[in-house]
Every structure is written in structure tokens, then in C-alpha cells.
Write a structure and sequence with these properties.
Elements: H1 9-22, H2 27-46, E1 51-61, H3 67-77, E2 82-89, E3 94-104, H4 105-116, E4 121-129
Antiparallel strand pairs: 1-3, 1-4, 2-3
């Protein structure tokens, strides 16, 4: 189906730069991808029920006493939801943990929230999506 969209010139120019950098073959391909992302984001923000796939990215202070044990304990508490994790030493003090989850949206969110509250955690970002079967 075809649609028409009016955009300010500066917005279209920025969009064109991005689709070129990302390697899209056309504006239409970029617009379709942007609309899919918008729909998925809206669904997550509006309704955290149902099965979700998620990634929690955690940046934390390795020297914080007990923090790694607490992160491990949380991962064990959510063992049926957490599918994998990756631990990276960025430098002498800072570590990056990437946790992949699949499960009920509320459980995915709760796992991230528990990690956010730990002393020594510098940054937590939860990214989720539905399985996209209907898209």
C-alpha cells in the first residue's frame, strides 16, 4: 500500500543520511523498518504482558564488594527466564554484563529492576521486543 508523508527538509535530510549509513536500498525500506520499531516499542511500553525477548546491559564497578555475587544470585532467581549471559572486563574496575532473557514481560522487567537497584551498578538498560510473529 502506498502512502504520502510530508516532512520538514531537515528531518528528511537526517533520515536520508541514516538510511545511507545503514545500507538501506531505499527510503521505503527505512520507513518500513522505522514503523516496525515504533510498533514494537509502543507495544512494550503499553503492555508488558505476553512473551518477550530481552537484553539487559549492565555496566558496573568490579571492585564493589558483593556486587558480582548479588548479580549472580539474581540470575539464579530468574533462571527460567534468563537464557544466557556474557561478562566482559572493560578495564581494571569496570565490567559489562549482557544478559539475554525470554519469558513473560513482567518477569523480564523485574529482573532488570532488581539489577538496577544494586550498589555499584553504574548503568542498566533493558531492551525488549515481542517475538514479532504478527509483523
Amino acid at each position: 500500500m502506498r502512502i504520502g508523508v510530508s516532512l520538514p527538509e531537515n528531518l528528511l535530510n537526517k533520515f536520508d543520511e541514516i538510511i545511507q549509513q545503514r545500507g538501506y536500498s531505499s527510503r521505503s525500506e527505512g520507513v518500513r523498518d522505522a514503523i516496525r520499531n515504533y510498533i514494537v516499542n509502543f507495544e512494550w511500553m503499553s503492555d508488558v504482558e505476553g512473551e518477550r525477548v530481552g537484553v539487559i546491559t549492565i555496566l558496573y564497578d568490579h571492585a564493589q564488594r558483593g556486587l558480582e555475587d548479588s548479580l549472580t544470585e539474581i540470575q539464579h532467581d530468574f533462571g527460567s527466564t534468563i537464557k544466557s549471559s556474557l561478562h566482559i572486563h572493560l578495564d581494571q574496575d569496570i565490567c559489562l554484563e549482557v544478559v539475554v532473557l525470554r519469558g513473560e514481560g513482567d518477569e523480564v522487567r523485574k529482573a532488570a529492576e532488581k539489577m538496577m537497584t544494586l550498589k555499584g551498578v553504574k548503568h542498566v538498560k533493558l531492551t525488549t521486543t515481542s517475538l514479532g510473529k504478527e509483523l
